[in-house]
Amino acid sequence: MEKHSYEVENLNLWYGSSQALHEVKMDIPSNQVTAIIGPSGCGKSTFLKALNRMVEMVPGVKVAGNIKYNGDDILSSKYHPEELRTKVGMVFQHPNPFPKSIYDNVAFGARVKGIRKKAVLDEMVEKSLKRAAIWDEVKDRLNKNAMGLSGGQQQRICIARAIANEPDVVLMDEPTSALDPISTLRVEELIQQLKEHYTIVVVTHNMQQASRISDRTAFFLNGEIIEYDNTDQIFSNPRDRRTEDYISGRFG
Amino acid sequence: MENAQKSETNNHRLLKKNGSSSKKNEKRGKALVYSSAAIVIIATLAITLFLGYKGIRTFFVFDVSVWNFLTTTDWDGTENSGAFSFIFGSFAVTFLAALVAAPLGIGSAIFMTEIAKKWGQKVLQPVIEILVGIPSVVYGLIGVTVIVPLLRDNVGGLGFSLLAGMIVVGVMILPTITSISADAIKAIPQDIKDASYGLGATRWQTIYKVIIPAALPSLMTAIVLGMARAFGEALAVQMVIGNVKGLPESITDQAATLTSIITLDMPHTTYGSVHNSLLWSLGLFLLIMSYVFIIIIRFVSSRRKV
Fold this sequence. Notes:
The complex is a heterodimer. In chain A, 36% of the residues lie in helices and 27% in strands. By secondary structure, chain A is α/β, with parallel strands linked by helices. Chain A has one domain (4-247): P-loop containing nucleotide triphosphate hydrolases (Rossmann fold). In chain A, the strands form two sheets. Chain A has a six-stranded mixed β-sheet, sandwiched between helices. In chain A, helix 3 (102-112) packs parallel to helix 6, helix 4 packs across helix 6 (151-163) and helix 6 packs parallel to helix 7 (181-194). By secondary structure, chain B is mainly α. Helix content of chain B is 78%, strand content 0%. In chain B, helix 1 packs across helix 11 and helix 3 (84-115) packs antiparallel against helix 4 (117-133). The longest helix of chain B has 59 residues, at 2-60. The model of chain B has no long low-confidence stretch (mean pLDDT 89). The A-B interface holds A 52, 54, 57, 82-86, 89-90, 92, 94, 96-100, 108-109, 111-113, 145, 147, 158, 161-162, 165 and B 189, 191-192, 194-202, 205, 209-210, 213-214, 305-306.
């Protein structure tokens, strides 16, 4: 049987009185790329942020249902969101490096966990930057401020920062929407490489991107999952009429 | 054809009318704005020049040595007077007040922007605005009637002391530091806070590893502005510090500041005397220091990173 990083069931979520997610059920397979597509406001980012409980930072949010991460119920009050977030990394829509050096950016997560030894940090920074395919570009200026890099480089620093925590899942919220086509290509290639080590969930507006990089695709509409299947199946032979309309560009 | 021409001339006339009146407004507005700017600059220049002229006279007309003036402590109103104890007193009050107000101010700024946003903005913000608006004589009165006896009974000495000055001025500059710090912290983009939480940092870790470092140049600006205010404060300090002309030996000793000596001595001097001129020199020193504070603020805020 296929191993699942996440098993989500009956997930309902409200912002104040408006419901953003309805009865979402979704199993996310390990070491694969799962894409989430859908029009703006369909709840795809909300769903992603529910997976590492970042959604709880929004005032007035209410979550009900079941989210199991590697078998553990992460919505239980006993589960610390900080602990979850060291195992589930997140990459955001806009590159958001800290106004610190490249080194300090990548070492942030480890320092938060209390790792102080320079040798350990050095090794971890190098390994993460290599995995994020940016080591060669920045190895001579690790002490320069990360804000001075290009947008695409910043985003790969953010990816390096996320994987430096040695997570097993990386959540990406439209990671290329603020990047130019060349940088987008590099990040897409990177995502392909990363799935060897990590489970990747990527929210994207760009359907071509979803079809290029993902193994499985979920189509969200108005807070519901309309269709969730292998990416080939969704893009070549969607079962639901609304999925077909969306991927053929009839709306959204 | 004729109609078209007519409407065109009408349009033209309308345009022209509008054009000329808006141009007039334009000119009037411009004159108003330019003259306001000019007046501000002229006033600053005039004050600087006047104070410079008056303050420098001490050293050229009365032959007081600058070195002697800045480093000795014997203040008798003659050519041999030295202002070091007041310079020391002013700096001591300023730094001690900043020592009290900076942690408290930055702490409450973090509280109202990051910890209890709703409560902080509803309650703390108005409280701070009220604190800003209280005249310094009121702080002085409270200092004399509450702080001074309290210190006399519990710490010893007369109560009138550097310590009393530190407390009163510290409370006075607290709202300045708090409100500027709060603005600085509010200006930190949500993006990088999210990044920190997303990496598993707790709220405290996010505050001291991300928010404070990113806001640091602005927080420094807040502290320096507070110190500038403390340095120039006269009335409240004068009421609680004791105004003794000599170097204080401890924090519970009485002292005097540049400002308190100017306000106290000025009525007792004759215009044009050495003593009078010496006071102008103290004023010049205050002005130079306020320029220094502004240069520091400029320097610090040019290093802003976000």
